[in-house]
């Protein structure tokens, strides 16, 4: 019997109320009687193996996809089987899909405009995992024997050999009491329409259409770790991490879309009827040493196996007949914008920009706008234009931040001008510690002095407070947008991956040191300034050593601009005064004297 779990069920202690106990006994009797009556009068042929809930908060309680089998003696259908295994290859300018009539499943799904880590055409079918757990567009039922029969049968295909899209291909199979029809329609984009149904004894049974075993570009443990189950229900999108995916869980809709994704690619179902759709999730372990290939050779390690989860998803229908569009392709912004769910939601929500989502998305859209202005009309992957887009975009960001940097420098200088008066207030109160009751009164006087002179204690920190979120948001974005995958720039062959020769990280460490060296810090302790001069280069070196080289490019260009800006600023009256105060500050720390800053003119 399948186990049905109620997520609202709670534990309880012993009860002494006899009325309550009698009520519980009566309810148990009613439930047992109802189960007996259902088993006798309405048997089910399929049920989920596990209904553990691991879905988004908006999902309903896990339950099997409804399927009703008419009672009566089994009906033997007319046999429909092919005599031998054949292949059908469907292609357009974007993809080349190879079907086998064994199971009517996909054996290869090549994206023509993308390459794998070995420079070969990218095949989104994870062949090693698919051999173990099922190929794309296979049918999953809650009865392993039926699932196996559907996958091993030789279907009769309406077309074999090469087929040019737009086109439709139908696979039919019938044996014993099973009848199967799978029809796939292809157009000029990355979207395929599917219409599948499995009948048993003439009645539909639950047979979700599946992408059960990850993607072919998952070349290492990180690739598997980036896999997610992506869903959208009533406009709310979710990206369920692989650690939270439960194998065999079934979740009823409504679903705008549902499927599996990794860092750069997706295979998601867009149901024709969002309310009729259900989601089945898969999670199985696989030893990547045995399935990952480099240059066509399996990577077999003598060390212990590296077990990682490979996740998948299937779309079912309460009616038993699955009708859906399927998007299988890159998470490219322009591509996703052109695809909408039945309810009108664009697929751009498939791109997970992470915890810095709004900032990362804004940065990407800005960089994309720059790229559109400087790049060819239809740049191919590997084009240098994205590297130049990063350079130009970085220059624009720094020009926009220039007024804030100047304002921050003025704020720091104002603070230093008030330092003698602040020191006098502290001396008048006896320099109380932070826990001394006098400290509150002293701080109130200091704040009143700063307010009177228009000085904000946070004014000098604003540029830094803006720079760090931009930096982390840029790092997240550059590792999650497919546009930068394999984008070339001089010796860099992938702006989303680390610099293979570590040239940019080393230059970045040097440029970070020069930024600290040339930027005066009149309000900063000299010892702290020296510490920052060495910790910032080390931090930047660590951040970019093995991470997105596009980030190192962005950071280096930003540092170069800051050095040039500071060189110009240091020659102005503001820069000269800041450097003078900084030098006085250093001398006073060495001699123990108070800084005598330039008096401020009261207005």
UniProtKB/TrEMBL annotation:
Keyword Transmembrane: yes
Spans annotated as Disordered: 44-69, 582-603
Ranges for domain Membrane insertase YidC/Oxa/ALB C-terminal: 386-571
Alphabetical UniProt keywords: Cell membrane, Chaperone, Membrane, Protein transport, Transmembrane, Transmembrane helix, Transport
Signal sequence coordinates: none
Residues of the Membrane insertase YidC N-terminal domain: 89-364
Annotated Polar residues bias: 591-603
Keyword Transmembrane attached: yes
Record-annotated membrane-spanning stretches: 20-37, 386-406, 457-481, 531-555
Protein location: Cell inner membrane; Cell membrane
Pfam families assigned to the protein according to its UniProt record, in alphabetical order: 60KD_IMP, YidC_periplas
Membrane topology, as annotated: Multi-pass membrane protein
Taxonomic superkingdom: Bacteria
Primary role: Required for the insertion and/or proper folding and/or complex formation of integral membrane proteins into the membrane. Involved in integration of membrane proteins that insert both dependently and independently of the Sec translocase complex, as well as at least some lipoproteins. Aids folding of multispanning membrane proteins.
Family statement drawn from the similarity comment of this UniProt entry: Belongs to the OXA1/ALB3/YidC family. Type 1 subfamily.
Subunit text: Interacts with the Sec translocase complex via SecD. Specifically interacts with transmembrane segments of nascent integral membrane proteins during membrane integration.
NCBIfam families the record matches: yidC_nterm (TIGR03593), yidC_oxa1_cterm (TIGR03592)
Protein name, entry field: Membrane protein insertase YidC
